[in-house]
Each structure stands twice: as structure tokens, then as C-alpha cells.
């Protein structure tokens, strides 16, 4: 086994981090450079996570920009922002010149507006500056905001031999070639070729004879989530981006899509847990409070609503305190059923799995909730009857729980479908939103039905 | 714009599905073939989702196996199983021969054991049969279970020219080349090359002069989730898989990893919502009940626990009914805070973001919960005081809510960290598990502290 090969089990060890700490404290430029020379940029980024901003900036200034540009891209946005703040416009421009255009445009977009201009002025390559200028005009959630200008393109009139010659030049700028895009002389996308096709073809064939005309593409204004769905569905590793006239503008690669998919999944997960998107365990207490408190406040209002409802039934139930003791159970069931049914709908919508009419969904959920409700109610009836020896109360509590479960399931199914129809992200309907509204409805229904059955 | 080019906006329309329905009802073989000829296999799979199994089987038998094998891979496992059940062993073997080895092995593994042998016996290509036999020995959650045998490999002793000639032969079997792996004469992985490197090199150079010796690899026994993390971290599009002696066995490509990431995110999301993994909105009511009922039952037990606790405080009820009316609020706050804090930890663990000791996490969560709790308590105090005009009760309810929120946050933080340390998936600690336990603890703490403050 060659010494350079690395099993993925290689991790950033505590010893390595300690070593870096010592070297930095001693301001040992040479030693630090030597130690980090053969370490992957993603691993160095992980080490920098463990340093403070001054130490991280020291490391960034020490290594050459070919490596540090990649390291910067791996860091948290917050950390990157702080490090960039202590670099000069010239230094930032050097980092940017090492990056692919999509990453470079993202970094510039994160800078304060005044800084952006100064950094752009320091970029020596005019073609690159123009490309970045173009990329920055797109919305960050659009295909244009995600695409890179780096791609390999050939004109339909070229020969295979001429093509290979020119590709050698173009390919040096492109990290991964994936597809070669075939365009007309006025830059309209008409097809694609793989490197493999080119290698297998004869040198004197023309591109127009061998290219594949069926090529998927996206418009620069398409939403990135749609792009992600399409690339996953059709197993694409790269997709070209065009304007309304099908002029080839850039391309999106699968590694960027992996990030989109992860971010999307994280966002939905956090919304379901009652956390406003985009916080991490390592964020400050104030940031975490800002993300969590609004949802807790919603829960507080729901709890006050439940209090008011229960207070309204106080006179009726002086004789029946036991009914009040089951409200946490009722609220929990309403919340759990609501979260389950809304989560299934939200996930189905995200995966384009939800077909058929809203009515059919509601009927199915009603049957499902009824089935689950009756099974649970039988158990609850037996418990209450065994414990209290009062058939009428056991019946009132169990029957109203079934009703609560059915209504909770219907609300959990209807709300995300309704939001989705209105073009609102259905993920906000999960978590505290659905548990809070179901708590209130659940408790109200519970007392109304119990009152009816007990005839009080 | 060429007629064959497709914007991603192309979707399976209702008209198209209706057309297919009509053609199938008329048993119009020719018409069906003609209509589906130019449609992507992923789109045909989407159409088949809308047909019943007999209709879908009819379509599968009608199209040629080059296309149907890809369609089968896109279908739900349940649907695929039913369709395969009505194909002969010979027909299944034909499908399998069209697939990449990783997909082929997955399909065979889904068949009943008896059927597996009969299908394997029908595979004419002996090399393929041996490869499938090997792949089926790996655990489905291991790198070996995910890898394909298709890859392009060259020996270090070859020249660039000889290499290109041989690659032309090998590459025909490989959908996407990504990297070319360099091995010694006894098949040990020593490095890699990109097609680009090969195209840029001179024809008479030797592979040993131009290959890159630093190559990431995984062991066939590594867990797929670890493989996914590494490929995402290092932005890899393919990774070679080796055995303990670094013999090159196969490779894993990024499209399979995209599926792993999505499945993992879906599983965590469902667990957080109280759904046993792997159900979809379109599954049967019985399957959905099986996935949902156990969690609801857990919630029911929690509710009964809350009932028993409240019953224990019944004596105080007559004078202080208002305390009981706030139990849904207390339960909701305990549940919400618990879900928030556990979700942040679970997500942090999934992204390898959680560093530092458990103690530090707990201290941070305590500060956070105290801050949130006090803000909410001030609001609650003002409400209760305004509504009931009783300072002692307002104080008792508010102070105990703060205590409940702190304990709930600590439980939500501790449980997933603890499970993770023990090697148990921390995602099970979210959702109903945490809300139920927090309901019980919350209500108990609430009554104990309220009683203490009110001196009853």
C-alpha cells in the first residue's frame, strides 16, 4: 500500500489539533506549513473549526491561496466572514481567482457591498470579473445562482481531432469534465458528448455526426430545489444551464446538488422540530434563542387557549375532576397524530409522491385515524374502567379520544396540502404549529363530546 | 432548439397517463411501444406508478429489457416485487444482464431465496454471475453492498497509448468513467488517473510516471453512512472499494450516495415525527398503522402516566383547579423544548458538528433554556395575574414552568448524546419518545414546585 493512499477512516485526531495549537502559539510558520502540507483542505477546515478566529486567520495567511481558497469554502459562513474581514481586498481577490466561478461568486456575495466593489477591482483576469459580475445577478435559490461558468464546450462544426486538441486547453480550467456540451456557432445548446464518446470515436469524424442531441437542461431562473429533484430523478451528474433563448450559460454539478439536498432536508427537519431554519448546535445562545423562542411562544399561546377552554368547563366538571386529568393524554394524542399525518404529507410532497385529490387523502387519513383510534380507545376504556369502575366515564373518555384522533389526523393532512396548493412551504405546518392547534381543538372536542355522553 | 432537447419542466402530464391507459385497455402493443419509445425510463416509472400491477406488468413485458431494467430500478420496492413475481426466471435474468452489477445484485437480493437460485442459473455470462455472487455476500448497509464491479482499471506498467486502447474496450461497459484506477499486477490499488490526465499526457509516457498516488478509498465493510459523509466532505464523485489487503474490489458512485443521503434524511425525519421508518403516503392503511400505532401507544401510556400523577394531587384540586388547567400548557412547553434541543443535537451528530464534552452541551442548553424560560415566564405571569388576580398562583405557575423548561431542555440534550455514545441511533430520541417522557417529568415537576410555592 502506497503511503499516500488514505482510508476514509483517517480523521482529524486530537493529537493533530494539539500539534497545530502548539505550532501556532510558537508562531512556527515553517512547522505549521510543513504539518499541513499533505492534509486535505476539508480536514484543515475541520481543524480551523477548533481554533479561534485569530489563529485561523494566521493559518489562512500562511498557506498558499490554491489551498486556502478551498479551505475557506468548507468553513461555516460565520467563520469565513470573520476571516475575510481581516484579509485585504487584494488577498481576497487572490483567493477568488483560485476558485471555481460558482464558489467565487458566493464568497463575493457574502461580503459587505462596499467591500465587493474593492475586491472586484482587484481581480486581474477581466474575463473572470465579467463572469462573476454575471453570476451575481442571479437569485441565490435559482439555477443561475448555483451554476459555474466552467465547462467544456465544442462547436458542432469541429472534428474529433480538433476537438481533442482544444479540449486539452479548456479542460485545464475545469475540475471535472462530465459532459462536453455541443453548441451552434451562436452558442445555442444543441447536444452533448461524453469524453468516452470522444475517445471511442475516430479522429476525422465531425462533432455534428457523433453528438447526442437529447440533452436535459435547466433555465437559469429555475428553482434549485426543482433542479435537485430532476438531477436525482434522472441520475444526472451535471446539467447545463441556459437562458430563455437556450444560449448555454453554465452548468451545475452533482456535488452542489448534494449540498442543496442536505440543506433542504435539514431545513424541513428543523421546521418539524420548531426551529427556525439555519441554526447549528454551535451557534451562540442568542442565535439559538432567536430560532427557538417564537415557536415556544406559539406553544405558550396554545397552552393559554387550553387553559381558557378548561376554565370554561370548570362548573360542569367539579364532580368529574378525573376528566381533567386526561387532558394531557388527549393533547398528546392530538399532537402526535397531527405530526405523523402532516409529516407523511410533507415528505410525500418533497418527493413528489403525493398524487390524487385532497379528498381522497382525507378519506384515507380518516380511515387510518379511525382504525388507530379504536385500537387505542379499547385499551384506554379497559384501563379507565379497571381504575375508576365507572362505565359511563370510561366510555366518554374513550369515545371522545377517537373523535379527537380523527380530527387531528384530518387537520394534519389538510393543512400541509392546503399550504402547498397556495405555494407556501408545507414544512411550516409540522411541529409546534400542528401540535399547538391540535392541542386546542383536541381539548375542546374532548370536553364537548364527554359532556354530551355524560349528559351534564 | 433541437426537438430532442428537454427542459426539466417536462413532467408526466395527466394527458399522457390517460393516453397510456387507453392504449393498454385496447391492448395496443404497437401504439404503447411507439408512445413510450422516446420517454425517459424515470418518467415511464412515474407513469407505471399510476397503473395497477397487471397494467404495469403488461408495459414491462412489452418494452425491451435495456429500458425496462432501468424502469424497474426506479419503481418502489413493493411494486417491483409484484411485477417480478409475474416474470419468468429467464425474463428476470435478461433484465439483470442489462443493469450495472450493484443494481442487479439489489434486485436479486429482493427475490425469494428459491427464485434467486433459478434466476442466477439463467444468467449466461459466467463472469457476471460470479460478480453478482460476490456482491450478494456483503451486508446491504456496507460499502460492499453499495459498490458496483464496473470500473476502469489500468496496470502501472502500461503506457498511455496502450492504456487508451484498452480503456476503449473497458469503458463500453461503464456508464460513467469518473476515475481510472491504477493497480499493481496483483490487483492492489495504488493510485488513480482521470480521463483528462490521460488525454493531456503524451502517448509514450508510462502510467507509473503520470498516476496520482494519493487516492481515497473505503473498505468493503465500512458503513454506507460513513462513506456518504466522506464523499460529501471531500466532494468525491466516485470512491474505490478495497478489501483488507487493499485489493481493488469495486467502486461507489455519487448517484448512489445521493440516495443514501435522502434515505437517511427521510428516516430521521420520520422518526422525529413518530413514524417507524420507510413508509410512504401511498402505502396501505395497514402498513401505515403498523408504522404509526406503536408511537401512539407510547403517547397513550405517557398520558396515563400524567393522569396518575394528577390523580395523586387530586386533594389539592378543589381549591386550586386553575393549576390543573395549565397542565396542557406545561406538557406542551416540555414537549416543544425537548424536541427542539434533541433535534439540534441529532442534526449536529449527523453532520459531525457536535464537538466538546457532554457537560459543556448541558451547561449551554441550561443557559439557553433558562433564558427562554424566563422570557416566557414573564409573559405567563402577567397573563395569569391579570386573569386571576392572584400573585401567588401566578408566581407558582410561572416559576415551575421555568423549571420544567430547563429540565426538558436537559433531557432533550442528554438523551441523544447518551444514545449516540452507546452506539444507538440518536434519532429515535426525538419525536414521541422525548415528548412523552417530557410530558410526564414536566407535569410531575410542575405540581411539586407549585405545591411547594403555594404551601399546600
List the helices and strands and how they pair.
Two copies of one chain form a homodimer.
Chain A: E1 6-7, H1 14-25, H2 29-36, H3 41-49, H4 53-62, H5 65-74, H6 77-85, H7 89-98, H8 101-110, H9 113-122, H10 126-135, H11 143-146, E2 152-155, H12 160-171, E3 179-183, E4 189-194, H13 195-200, H14 207-210, E5 216-219, H15 224-233, E6 238-242, E7 248-253, H16 254-272, H17 285-312, H18 321-325, H19 327-350, H20 358-388, H21 391-421, H22 432-454
Parallel strand pairs in A: 2-3, 5-6
Antiparallel strand pairs in A: 3-4, 6-7
Helix pairs in contact in A: 3-5, 4-6, 5-7, 7-8, 7-9, 8-10, 15-16, 17-22, 19-21, 19-22, 20-21, 21-22
Nutshell version of this structure?
Chain A is mainly alpha-helical.
Can you put this structure into words, describing what you see?
- The structure is a homodimer of 456-residue chains.
- The first copy, chain A, has 456 residues and is mainly alpha-helical.
- Chain A has three domains: 14-139, Alpha Horseshoe (MgtE N-terminal fold), CATH 1.25.60; 152-261, CBS-domain, CATH 3.10.580; 285-454, Orthogonal Bundle (Tetracycline Repressor, domain 2), CATH 1.10.357.20.
- Chain A is 65% helix and 7% strand.
- Chain A is built from 22 helices and seven strands.
- The first copy, chain A, has helices spanning 14-25, 29-36, 41-49, 53-62, 65-74, 77-85, 89-98, 101-110, 113-122, 126-135, 143-146, 160-171, 195-200, 207-210, 224-233, 254-272, 285-312, 321-325, 327-350, 358-388, 391-421, 432-454; strands spanning 6-7, 152-155, 179-183, 189-194, 216-219, 238-242, 248-253.
- In chain A, the strands form two sheets. Chain A has a three-stranded mixed β-sheet with strand order 2-3-4. Chain A has a three-stranded mixed β-sheet with strand order 5-6-7.
- In chain A, strand 2, helix 12 and strand 3 form a beta-alpha-beta unit.
- In chain A, helix 4 packs across helix 6 (77-85) and helix 8 (101-110) packs across helix 10.
- The first copy, chain A, is elongated.
- The interface between A and B is large, with 131 and 132 residues.
Amino acid at each position: 500500500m502506497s503511503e499516500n493512499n488514505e482510508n476514509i477512516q483517517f480523521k482529524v485526531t486530537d493529537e493533530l489539533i494539539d500539534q497545530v495549537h502548539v505550532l501556532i502559539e510558537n508562531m512556527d510558520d515553517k512547522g505549521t506549513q510543513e504539518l499541513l502540507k499533505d492534509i486535505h483542505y476539508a480536514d484543515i477546515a475541520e481543524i480551523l473549526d477548533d481554533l479561534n478566529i485569530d489563529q485561523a486567520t494566521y493559518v489562512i495567511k500562511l498557506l498558499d491561496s490554491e489551498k486556502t481558497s478551498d479551505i475557506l469554502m468548507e468553513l461555516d459562513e460565520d467563520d469565513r466572514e470573520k476571516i475575510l474581514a481581516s484579509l485585504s481586498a487584494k488577498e481576497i481577490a487572490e483567493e477568488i481567482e483560485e476558485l471555481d466561478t460558482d464558489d467565487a461568486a458566493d464568497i463575493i456575495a457574502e461580503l459587505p457591498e462596499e467591500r465587493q466593489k474593492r475586491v472586484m477591482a482587484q481581480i486581474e483576469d477581466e474575463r473572470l470579473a465579467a463572469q462573476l459580475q454575471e453570476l451575481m445577478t442571479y437569485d441565490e435559490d435559482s439555477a443561475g445562482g448555483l451554476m459555474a461558468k466552467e465547462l467544456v464546450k465544442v462547436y458542432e462544426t469541429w472534428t474529433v481531432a480538433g476537438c481533442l486538441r482544444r479540449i486539452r486547453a479548456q479542460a485545464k480550467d475545469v475540475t471535472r469534465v462530465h459532459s462536453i456540451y455541443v453548441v451552434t456557432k451562436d452558442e445555442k445548446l444543441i447536444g452533448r458528448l461524453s469524453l468516452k464518446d470522444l475517445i471511442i470515436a475516430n479522429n476525422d469524424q465531425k462533432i455534428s455526426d457523433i453528438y447526442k442531441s437529447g440533452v436535459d437542461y435547466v433555465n437559469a431562473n429555475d428553482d434549485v430545489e426543482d433542479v435537485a429533484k430532476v438531477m436525482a430523478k434522472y441520475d444526472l451528474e451535471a446539467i447545463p444551464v441556459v437562458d430563455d433563448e437556450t444560449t448555454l450559460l453554465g452548468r451545475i454539478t452533482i456535488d452542489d446538488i448534494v449540498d442543496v439536498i442536505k440543506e433542504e432536508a435539514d431545513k424541513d427537519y428543523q421546521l418539524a422540530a420548531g426551529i427556525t431554519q439555519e441554526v447549528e448546535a454551535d451557534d451562540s445562545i442568542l442565535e439559538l434563542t432567536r430560532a427557538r423562542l417564537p415557536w415556544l411562544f406559539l406553544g405558550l399561546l396554545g397552552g393559554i387557549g387550553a387553559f381558557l377552554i378548561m376554565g370554561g368547563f370548570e362548573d360542569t366538571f367539579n364532580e368529574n375532576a378525573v376528566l381533567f386529568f386526561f387532558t394531557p393524554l388527549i393533547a398528546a394524542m392530538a399532537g402526535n397524530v397531527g405530526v405523523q399525518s402532516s409529516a407523511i404529507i410533507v415528505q410525500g410532497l418533497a418527493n413528489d409522491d403525493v398524487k390524487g385529490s385532497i379528498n381522497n387523502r382525507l378519506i384515507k387519513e380518516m380511515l387510518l385515524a379511525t382504525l388507530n383510534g379504536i385500537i387505542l380507545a379499547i385499551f384506554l376504556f379497559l384501563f379507565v374502567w379497571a381504575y375508576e369502575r365507572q362505565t359511563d366515564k370510561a366510555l366518554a373518555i374513550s369515545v371522545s379520544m377517537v373523535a379527537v384522533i380523527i380530527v387531528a389526523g384530518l387537520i394534519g393532512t389538510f393543512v400541509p396540502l392546503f399550504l402547498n396548493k397556495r405555494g407556501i412551504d408545507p414544512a411550516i405546518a409540522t411541529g409546534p404549529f400542528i401540535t399547538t392547534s391540535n392541542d386546542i381543538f383536541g381539548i375542546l372536542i374532548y370536553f364537548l363530546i364527554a359532556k354530551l355522553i355524560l349528559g351534564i
